[in-house]
Amino acid sequence: MIKAVFIDFYGTVVHEDGDIVRKISQEIFDTGIAKNLSEIDSYWWKAFQTAFISAYGDSFETQRQLEYQSLQKTIQHFHSTADARAMSELMFEHWIKPPIFEESKQFFESCPVPVYIVSNIDRADILQAIKVHGLKPVEVFTSEDAKSYKPRKELFEFALENTGLSAKEVVHIGDSLSSDIKGASSVGINAIWINRSGKEIPEGINAVENLLQIYDMDYFK
User: For the whole prediction, is pTM greater than 0.90?
Assistant: First the structure.
């Protein structure tokens, strides 16, 4: 029996920062020597992922630190005159005031079991975003709390330990196959993929287009 929902936040409950990222890439392109925007995006993503993967335990760094470091490295690589601190602030401003998906508030208000947010973000930023939209999760578990990022298992284990629930008593909802679905599955939690853009659904993956469609599944019946 499902006793609680774990839910991702950015990309699942609220919008990701894609528009801001594109704006920053354009600024680097306009002030640097990159061949095209995709070259910048690729380098920046690899720089962030390299730091992200190694950030756990005693080597943990916050999302803000990782984003700033990877952005600064990207700006330097393309000999751009863009201001890394100013560009980072654009992302941080989005993180604390992100636009919310239309059905998210209704999901939080109507879910028949407790809802816990489990997110790869810094605690202060997500608490501010939750306050902006008046959401009322039972608790929030972040990468900063667990000193580990999804898809590593530590964040999910931290959430289970602090709720006193077993993996079979929880369903996790998220928009990332690599972080949410893979990470939750690694500790035995059933996972639902939010596929808002209509991508091809891999075999064996439970997917919905929005949060309210989850009520049509068997988890709460």
Answer: yes
